[in-house]
């Protein structure tokens, strides 16, 4: 059904000068489809990938509303690419998550593309998307990744949406340089990030109303495992980690089960609140327990849900 929405949108914006309402309508329709599919019990991992792929197409349609002067035939080109990063880069886009993108420039010449970049990002906001964006040249990528492990991590999950693939290859080659965050240094930096993150959750209110992303045992901890595995062994999937002996088969199954469970709750929470809410506040817990088919028995449904 998402394909049908995109087909209709592509035809409509090709003949209309009032494109913003058309984009908004398509995005709203897509969210209703995702809600129906989630409530019908379709696998959440498939749903977040479908949502990511749908947004890929939305951003591509928006991007192509503008003429990008890349001097493609010249020796000194000014190529530009649109890159998905973060959860969007992983193809794990929740219904109301921010859409994080990086506009990658071949050279330090933002002025060449400044007007288009401003118009493109404004269009995304106008059609109702919550977009986090950065603009970096290839040189910026290396410099900023070297200075900040968070930037480095985001770029490790980069996925190209539009542009010459050679730009992405150049960026990846820079990030793979052996002196840039060697695996041991990267591990220590991510471990320190985790300690700081966990310390912020060391309060009663955070234990009773945990954050699905950042609390101990949350999605960020699972992602930290995959980031470290990729930096050291070059593998991303839990199945590959098991194949390489990084995880046992039992650990792999536990990791996959935990990730799916947390994503299901987070997906349901986004639908319930209509926002990028990740904290299990008291006011949401009972409704989520009912929606996820927990029922009162020896224990209340909400207690089963929160202890599960």
UniProtKB/TrEMBL annotation:
Pfam families in alphabetical order: DUF294 (PF03445), GlnD_UR_UTase (PF08335)
Identify the residues that the record assigns to the Protein-PII uridylyltransferase N-terminal domain, covering every copy.
Answer: 31-124
Which UniProt keywords are present, listed alphabetically? Hydrolase, Magnesium, Multifunctional enzyme, Nucleotidyltransferase, Transferase
Q: Entry's InterPro entries? A: GlnD_Uridyltrans_N, NT_sf, PII_UdlTrfase/GS_AdlTrfase, UTase/UR
Q: Which GO terms describe its molecular function?
A: [protein-PII] uridylyltransferase activity; hydrolase activity
Q: Which residues form the PII-uridylyltransferase/Glutamine-synthetase adenylyltransferase domain?
A: 186-307
Q: Could you tell me which HAMAP family the record lists for this protein? A: PII_uridylyl_transf
Q: What is this protein called?
A: PII-uridylyltransferase/Glutamine-synthetase adenylyltransferase domain-containing protein
Q: Which organism is it from?
A: marine metagenome
